[in-house]
Amino acid sequence: MDSAGLFVYGLAVAVALLLIFIYDRCRFSELDAIPVIGPSGVVSSWLGVVRFIKDAPAMVQEGYQKHKGGMFRVPLIDRWVVVLTGPRLIEELRKVPEYELSFDHAMRDLLQVKYTFGIDAQEYPYHVQVTRNHLSRNLQALFPDVHDEINHAFSTIIPLDQDGWTKVRIYPEIMKAMCRVSNRLFVGLPLCRSPEFEALQQQFALQVVLRATLVNCFPKFAHPIIGRLLTNTPSSIRRCMALLEPIVQERLQTLDQFKDEWNAQPNDMISWLIDVSDNEHRNLRSICLRILVLNFAALHTSAQSFTHALLNLATYPQYCTPLREEASAVINRDGWTKTAMTKLIKMDSFLKESQRFNSTTLFPMMRKAMRQFVFSDGTVIPSGTHVVVASLPMHLDDEYFESASEFQPFRFSQRREDDGEDPQILLASTSASYIPFGYGHHACPGRFFASSVMKAMMAYLVLNYDIKLEKEGERPPDEWFMMNCSPNRKAEVMFRRRRPT
Prior knowledge:
alpha+beta
């Protein structure tokens, strides 16, 4: 085919895709009663899509200010999304059953689960039960392993025998540290320190988001084609199986031999997954897939949240001293234990304030209408529509947080001193006005583990290093793409080893 023929063929394909996108837009005409931010026409709404890609936070903030306490909609590439604002609607959303507004089906669409994880991981999510129950229940006993891995990881990233200030590109190094610490409990030594295993987990976590975003750029009829062209899940599972096979097969064989009489079973994620899985899923491939999914959850959110917090601490290094004094007093008394982490009141507050101030996503709560749904104010949500919650504008609203535009690291610990013990003030807690971990039944099941690990990591750093930015007080800007926020990937933090006095 000559160049003219290729041009005509390409033009025809482009026009066909445009017509399909326009048809998809027309399908959502039932949403016309809901206010829109930006142009609302079938074709002109694409200008809104461009704006959302470039500056979603400003677009959502505009909607929040105009329709606070109500709802509005914004255009994504493949659909309109209805955005709820304020605690009243969040409480209402929390109470809606899964068969009407579904979290699972919203995640299937957002992450294109069929092509990134495989439907089996979502239809048989026994790893969620393990995270919610076994991981939380065993963290106290396994905390010495957590501390040991934090010590090893950071002494590798920032050598303890080095004098003077050391500059570290922080986000990729926190990803490494979080990967090693999490996998110390997931797969144990020595595999958690394997460069090949670490690279696999990090690559898979990053590629899930990238591939899901790319698939969502195409109309639904093209998803099976594009999804299968882009997916790396089968190869990632094969690589994980090659690394985990000796461990998993030995566990399965020993369990089959001794059954309930095996008292020396290792206490880690692999054993827990084997324990709760049914016969169909008690195999190497199923276990490896869940390890990949769990690493995605740990690396995609916890590493970003902790990097945000560390950048905030480096921006305001005067807060190192009170955090250091608290950590020293608590750990000298209670040691490196999970119990000690619950007593780091200022540390807990610092991390919670950082999550309030620096989001990892605009929409931590998302549902998909499985049938037509009507909110209490009469707003009709057609079947197939995605409903989300605007978190950042609420977190920066003076109605819910005094002087909300200011970073006040001890905001929550001060409230604790003023009002007494209140579970809602803790880092891992959720409420209708504080939703970084989500809210309700579908709140992040690993948030208790994540909060303990982040406090332990921060305590280790402030006890062993002085921390600052090279350009004092100039925090590198966050990186936004649509509704997702990442700490600046090129940001560098300065560390200096503290010597015993």
